[in-house]
Specification:
alpha/beta, Alpha-D-Glucose-1,6-Bisphosphate, Chain A, domain 3, TATA-Binding Protein, 3 domains, 18 helices, binds 6-O-phosphono-alpha-D-glucopyranose, EC 5.4.2.2, A-D-PHexomutase_a/b/a-I/II/III, metal-binding, isomerase
Length: 492
């Protein structure tokens, strides 16, 4: 039996290999134990699921295990985006949520995210506690081969907190929920839908067959915009590609925007926590380009002046904006859980990351592609310029633009170990002819150069590869900087 581990963002597995009904029940039991150990069972748990194959059935199994453990269940009556599941935790003041999704992974995958009561991704100490529970349950299964072949629900209950005795004060229940309308109302407090409506935008919405369909399209249309939908129907095979809103996977949308002369394209990943933004002329706007635009907009237009939090891999253009407004920048390892923590604890007005996640003050500490898309529409509506033109204005205002790029290099497990060792010792005096001013080790190795350029090498927590990120004011230097650090770390 494979060890079940929570990675950068939850447990992911291949359906019918390690992602089975039995293992989902074991993980559910581990979460139920975690909640009951904290005496939070009476608050109940929200259960959401995406559009993937069998996600609704897996959700049903999670619900059974929770109820058997005396935990009240708020089960969604339809597929939900991850941020909506997280938001429902707040609506019901629940002990947390389970979201069944493998996000943007290939169709044969499914996954399991635990969202604690603060409505953001679980921090490492919480997933570690759940993993301990899982290991204990898996060991019991290994010892008892008869049980192993039995119905896993019985097994989950066998190894959990005894049912009836543990729930003296309440009767566990299954309550069906549809949190969409509370969520819409909440977003309308964060985004100016009236301004967006008045701009009468023509927008292409691409849900990439994921559970984000029925959100951006509904809200934009309701505000009075013209919306064209793309991939807004369920397809558990995702039309043969990955539900990931990258430039490559949005080529078709870019072509349409260009051909139609539309002003905006908004895409979501499989569970709608990541965003993809396309500008007039079919120009893809990277998250590293969009986040500074948004930070400037929050400060200058919405009056939300405050610190910002970004991952170690995200554009330092945010730092330039923060500096000009006398604000703090909080840098975190990659993973929205760390960003979410800073949103909660440091009063940041924006938290964002290079891989396409963001949230703002007043919202839940979970990344939300729907909110990101509406904020992009708001920026357009307010400015009556293209996003690319606004980006140029912002760059001018804050002392010049920055270019950033990421290179992904696949490695074998043996190479990976060797490179990680080499990275630990990597401490060059200069990179591509410029002196290294700072060496940051919170996630991989980041070298900040005297010129303000920087390069970061880190192993991905979700894929078998290394990521080499670099940023410079001079586009031509990015490759040179990446190559220099790859040579130094022996990555080829
Ligand atoms: O670079 P990786 O470790 O593969 O992580 C890439 C991304 O994975 C998940 O989507 C996390 O929620 C993100 O926070 C992270 O940026």
């Amino acid at each position: 039996m494979k060890k079940i581990k929570f990675g950068t963002d939850g447990w992911r597995g291949i359906i019918a290999d390690d992602y089975t009904f039995e293992n989902v029940r074991i993980v559910s039991q581990a979460v139920a134990d975690y909640i009951n150990n904290k005496n939070m069972g009476a608050k109940g748990i929200v259960i959401g699921y995406d559009n993937r194959f069998l996600s609704d059935r897996f959700a049903d199994n999670v619900a059974d295990v929770m109820i058997q453990n005396g935990i009240k269940v708020y089960l969604s009556d339809r597929p939900l985006p991850t941020p909506v599941t997280a938001f429902a935790v707040k609506v019901h003041d629940a002990a947390g949520a389970v979201m069944l999704t493998a996000s943007h992974n290939p169709p044969e995958y499914n996954g399991f995210k635990f969202i604690p009561d603060y409505a953001g991704p679980a921090l490492p100490h919480i997933t570690a506690a759940i993993e301990e529970n899982i290991a204990r349950l898996q060991n019991s299964v290994r010892r008892n081969t008869n049980v192993y072949h039995e119905q896993a629900l019985e097994l989950a209950v066998d190894h959990g907190i005894p049912m009836a005795q543990s729930v003296p004060n309440h009767v566990a229940d299954r309550i069906m929920i549809d949190p969409r309308y509370e969520y819409f109302d909440h977003l309308e407090k964060l985004v100016d839908m009236e301004v967006i409506g008045r701009a009468n935008l023509e927008v292409m919405v691409d849900a990439m067959h994921g559970s984000g369909m029925g959100y951006l399209d509904v809200m934009l249309r309701r505000a009075g915009n013209r919306v064209k939908e793309c991939r807004c129907h369920r397809d558990p095979l995702f039309g043969g590609s990955l539900p990931e809103p990258t430039q490559k996977s949005l080529e078709g949308v870019c072509r349409w925007i260009k051909a139609e002369g539309a002003r905006l394209g908004l895409a979501l990943d499989g569970d709608a926590d990541r965003f993809g933004i396309i500008d007039v002329g079919g120009v893809y706007i990277t998250p590293n380009q969009f986040l500074p635009l948004l930070y400037h907009h929050l400060i200058a237009v919405k009056g939300l002046v405050g610190p910002v939090t970004r991952t170690v891999a995200t554009s330092h253009m945010l730092d330039r904006i923060a500096q000009k407004h006398g604000q703090e920048v909080y840098e975190t390892p990659v993973g929205f859980k760390f960003i979410g923590q800073n949103l909660l604890e440091k009063g940041c007005v924006l938290g964002g990351e290079e891989s396409g996640g963001l949230s703002i003050k007043g919202h839940i500490p979970e990344k939300d592609g729907i909110l990101a898309g509406l904020l992009a529409a708001e920026i357009l509506a307010v400015n009556e310029k293209s996003l690319s033109e606004i980006a140029l204005d912002v760059a001018k205002e804050y002392g010049g633009g920055m270019y950033s790029e990421r290179l992904d290099v696949r490695t074998t497990p043996a190479q990976k170990v060797r490179i990680i060792e080499k990275l630990q010792r990597l401490d060059p005096a200069e990179i591509a002819g410029v002196t290294v001013a700072k060496r940051i080790t919170i996630d991989g190795i980041k070298l900040v150069l005297e010129s303000g350029e920087w390069v970061l090498v880190r192993p991905s927590g979700t894929e078998p590869l290394f990521r080499i990120y670099a940023e410079s004011e001079n586009k031509e230097r990015i490759e040179k900087i990446q190559q220099a650090v790859m040579n130094a770390a022996d990555i080829n």
